[in-house]
């Protein structure tokens, strides 16, 4: 069996301790990538890092200083960064606009949009100097479709989608790829964390598994350097969206 094209590369996965982030970290590690995961829950980071044989850094994706510290750690150890996966995100508060608070709005935007831009600003310079690399931004179908109570979260993800396209155009001439992976219902803690409660077991079993999304991200990263998928939207068949 030929060696993975990702063998020996380095990756940073934000929000990597749980859910999709852990699945992405696992898939990249299986391809021989040296992986660092970040997040705010140190206990969860330690547990996942030990299980997956990856490194961890406690870092808040919404904090520019934490970005500086995390990237300094990775570059100090590996000398380069080949893959950045901006996975950290969350609903924070899924509610009608009038039921939001100024604080919840700011938190949703910071976690799902501003924090990603903080990271991309720094990593763009690193990868541009290398002349290679890929940035994968994890979005949401809420950035394409509108549902009641999802307006603030959807606005943040729509902003992320547009930013990703602009960043691709900026970095393409320098050999750096930018892709957006857009999942929908997942077998993760998203709904619990957003205060929506868990999905029923039968539905959850048919949702996107972290390992499944992880494999998709790894496949995008493993494409030849002259190819880039702009965006992939992944739907679980159990989820009906009408009109699509």
Quick summary of this structure?
This protein is of the alpha/beta class and 244 residues long. It has eight helices and seven strands, in the order βαβαβαβαβαβαααβ.
Structural description of this entry:
The chain has about 240 residues and is α/β, with parallel strands linked by helices. The chain has a single domain (about 10-235), classed as Rossmann fold. About 45% of the residues lie in helices and about 15% in strands. It has helices spanning about 20-30, 40-50, 65-80, 100-130, 150-170, 190-195, 200-205, 210-220; strands spanning about 10-15, 35-40, 55-60, 85, 135-140, 175-185, 230-235. The protein has a 7-stranded parallel sheet with strand order 3-2-1-4-5-6-7, sandwiched between helices. It is globular and about 45 Å long.
SSE topology:
Layout: E1 10-13, H1 19-30, E2 34-39, H2 42-52, E3 55-58, H3 64-78, E4 83-86, H4 102-130, E5 133-138, H5 151-171, E6 176-183, H6 190-193, H7 201-204, H8 210-221, E7 231-234
Parallel strand pairs: 1-2, 1-4, 2-3, 4-5, 5-6, 6-7
Helix pairs in contact: 1-8, 3-4, 4-5
């Amino acid at each position: 069996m030929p060696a993975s094209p990702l063998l020996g590369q380095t990756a940073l996965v934000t929000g990597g301790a749980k859910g999709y982030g852990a699945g992405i970290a696992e898939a990249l590690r299986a391809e021989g990538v040296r992986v660092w995961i970040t997040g705010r829950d140190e206990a969860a980071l330690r547990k996942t890092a030990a299980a997956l044989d990856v490194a961890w850094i406690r870092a808040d994706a919404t904090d520019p200083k934490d970005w500086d510290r995390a990237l300094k750690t990775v570059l100090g150890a590996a000398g380069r960064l080949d893959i950045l996966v901006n996975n950290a995100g969350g609903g924070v508060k899924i509610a009608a606009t009038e039921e939001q608070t100024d604080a919840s709005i700011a938190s949703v935007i910071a976690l799902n949009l501003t924090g990603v831009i903080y990271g991309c600003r720094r990593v763009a310079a690193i990868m541009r100097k290398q002349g290679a690399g890929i940035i994968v931004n994890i979005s949401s179908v809420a950035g394409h479709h509108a549902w009641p109570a999802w307006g603030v979260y959807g606005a943040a993800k729509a902003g992320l989608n547009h930013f990703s396209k602009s960043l691709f155009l900026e970095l393409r001439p320098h050999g750096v790829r930018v892709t957006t992976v857009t999942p929908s219902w997942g077998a993760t803690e998203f709904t619990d964390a957003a205060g929506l409660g868990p999905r029923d077991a039968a539905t959850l079993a048919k949702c996107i598994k972290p390992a499944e999304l992880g494999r998709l991200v790894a496949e995008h990263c493993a494409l030849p350097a002259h190819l880039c998928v702009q965006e992939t939207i992944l739907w679980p068949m159990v989820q009906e969206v009408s009109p699509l």
